[in-house]
C-alpha cells in the first residue's frame, strides 16, 4: 500500500484538527510509527454515552443502604469525581510532548474519554449522591468527602507535573510515569477494583454499568502508557521511581479500599515494570 504523505498525518493535539499541507512548518509534530493505530481502532469500539444510563433506581437504592456502606461508596465515588475532573483538565500537554502526531491523536482520544468519565461521575454526584445544584459546587463537595490522599495526588501533584510538561521542563516519559503508571495504573486501578467489588450485588445497576465502561477505558489507557514508555526507552532510574511511588499509591485511598486490594498494588506495579524492562533489554541486545 502506498505510504501517505507525512503532512497528511500531521495533527494538532490541542484541537484534534488535521493540519493541511500548507500549514506544516519545521518542527511540526509528525508520525514516526503506526502502532498507535491499534489503540485508535480499539477506542472506536469502546464508545459509550455518559448521559444515556438511567440512575433512577440507583438514587432510590442509595437512600436504603446502610450508613457504613454509603460512607464507603461516598469516598470511592467522590474520589473518582475529583480524579477524573483533574485528569480531563491536565492531559493536554501530553500531546505536544509526544512529538509524534499519531501518539498525540491517541492522547486526544484518551482526553476525550476522561472528559466523558468526569461527566459520568458528575451525574452520579448529582443524581445519586445529591452533592449540589451546580457542577462546581458538586466538585467542591466531592473534594471534602474524597480521601485526602486522592485529592493531593490529583489536585496538586498532577497539575504540577502537567505545568512542568507544558513549560518543557519535563517530557512525555515523566508524564507517563506519574499519570499512566502511577495514578491510573496503581491508584485508580485499586479504586476500580474496590468499587466494582462493592457494586457486585447489583443494588445500584446504573452506577455499576457506567463504571464498567470506565474500567474498560482505563485498561486501554494503561496499555497505551506502557507502550509509550517502552517506545521512549527510559533510563532505568525512571522505572525505579515508578516502583518507589507504589507505597504512596497503596495508601492513597485510606480505608475506602480493603486490605486485600491494597496488597495487590505493589506486585501489580512490579509486573508492569518487568514488562517494560524485558522489552528494553531485548531491544538493546538486538541493537
Question: How would you characterize this protein structure?
Answer:
- The protein has 287 residues and is mainly alpha-helical.
- The protein has a single domain (50-286), classed as Ribonucleotide Reductase, subunit A, CATH 1.10.620.20.
- It is 70% helix and 1% strand.
- The protein has 13 helices and two strands.
- The protein has a two-stranded antiparallel ribbon.
- β1 and β2 (17-18) form a beta hairpin.
- The protein is globular.
- Residues 1-16 and 26-32 have low confidence and may be disordered.
What are the segments in which pLDDT stays under 50 over at least 5 consecutive residues? Answer: 1-16, 26-32
**General form:** globular
Major sheet characteristics: 2 strands, antiparallel
Instruction: Could you tell me the CATH topology label.
Output: Ribonucleotide Reductase, subunit A
**Helix content range:** over 70%
Oligomer: single chain
Name given to the CATH homologous superfamily: Ribonucleotide Reductase, subunit A
How would you sum up this structure in a few lines?
The protein has helices at residues 36-45, 56-64, 67-90, 94-98, 101-127, 135-145, 148-167, 172-198, 205-232, 236-244, 246-251, 259-262, 265-286, and strands spanning 11-12, 17-18.
